[in-house]
Design a protein that fits this description.
Layout lengths: L9 E7 L26 H12 L1 H9 L5 E7 L7 H13 L3 E6 L6 H10 L2 E5 L5 H7 L2 E2 L2 E2 L2 H14 L4 E8 L9 H7 L3 E6 L12 H10 L7 E4 L1 H4 L5 E2 L6 E3 L6 E3 L3 H4 L1 H7 L4 H9 L10
Parallel strand pairs: 1-2, 1-10, 2-3, 3-4, 4-7, 7-8, 8-9
Antiparallel strand pairs: 5-6, 11-12
This protein binds iron/sulfur cluster.
Length: about 300
């Protein structure tokens, strides 16, 4: 476009398929009342949800004058790849509807099978990495019985995925909190060579613990300024009400403007996606801005 405005034609829908995670990061906002009936457990419900998601571009184009033509389903968690059988089923259904696929993972469960699946079926894959330092990862909660997060393994997996699919987009997501604000991740980013590095300021949705000041957040960004071409960052205000996010039981949810926690729609498969969309505090201006700017600052949650 000659005016520098790039029209976003791919609608990104973030589905948190599960709350379960092998880690327990203290700022994790993937918490939805420990729902037992996660939609991913039932193939029929997954199919219904996918059918509803498929209607979204037409609905949004009608309402907000967007020009979406396709859907990217971004699978997030909890840990997206904890249950390989169920996530494979979702991937299969998404491909049947010609959605493109991306996911965010902490990388801990990736094995040869998953690495190959990601390389073959995904347009992009994001790894959440906050620290290279084991004591810091332990403080953050990125640890389990079998050990603390292994960032070297993440680098090896990225290398194999790129070898199998050189055109896949690699993303790194980093949450900056009081625990890692003074860290230098340059060596890791140099090796991972991601297409995009998303740097988030810890979001006080669930707890105010480990909050970081705006000055310290900016200092973190400045420390990594040599990556400015691939860094995108977003502060808390920009992150409110401007994502399409679906929780593990299939409801739209958003950060509550009243403070901590979330607000929810009725489950999408019960009410239909148009009605569910009407029920959330969705900001069309921010949404419109997110998808109609020449430089799209952030598109996913993690
Ligand atoms: S790895 Fe992600 S989903 Fe798991 S506890 Fe940490 S922030 Fe939450």
């Amino acid at each position: 476009m000659d005016n520098g405005i790039k029209i976003q034609r791919e609608l990104v829908v973030n589905w948190h398929i599960t709350e379960a995670c092998n880690y327990h990061c203290n700022y994790c906002f993937a918490k939805w009342d420990k729902q037992k009936n996660e939609l991913m457990n039932d193939e029929n419900s997954v199919s219904k949800l996918m059918d509803e998601i498929q209607k979204l571009p037409a609905i949004l184009n009608g309402k907000y004058l967007t020009e979406f033509e396709s859907i990217r389903l971004n699978l997030v968690g909890g840990e997206t790849f904890l249950n390989i059988r169920k996530v494979t089923r979702i991937i299969h259904q998404a491909k049947q509807r010609k959605f493109s696929l991306s996911a965010i993972t902490n990388g801990s469960r990736l094995n040869n099978e998953l690495v190959t699946l990601i390389a073959n079926d995904f347009n992009s894959i994001g790894f959440s990495v906050d620290s290279l330092d084991s004591p810091t990862n332990i403080k953050i909660g990125r640890t389990e019985k079998s050990g603390v997060m292994d960032t070297e393994k993440v680098l090896r997996d990225i290398s194999v995925i790129k070898e199998l699919n050189p055109s896949i987009d690699i993303k790194i997501n980093t949450v900056v909190s009081s625990l890692n604000q003074s860290e230098d991740l340059s060596a890791f980013i140099d090796q991972a060579a991601p297409n995009k590095w998303k740097v988030f300021k810890v979001l006080p949705v669930i707890t105010r613990e480990n909050e970081v000041s705006q000055d310290d957040f900016i200092e973190f960004l400045e420390r990594h300024s040599k990556f400015e071409n691939i860094i995108s960052s977003e502060d808390n205000d920009e992150m409110t009400d401007s994502y399409l996010m679906i929780d593990p039981i299939g409801r739209f949810f958003q950060n509550s403007i009243l403070g901590s926690g979330y607000s929810y729609s009725t489950p999408i498969v019960n009410t239909g996606i148009e009605e569910a969309l009407n029920e959330i505090n969705f900001d069309p201006e921010k949404f419109h801005g997110r998808y109609k700017t020449s430089r799209i600052t952030m598109q996913e949650v993690f």
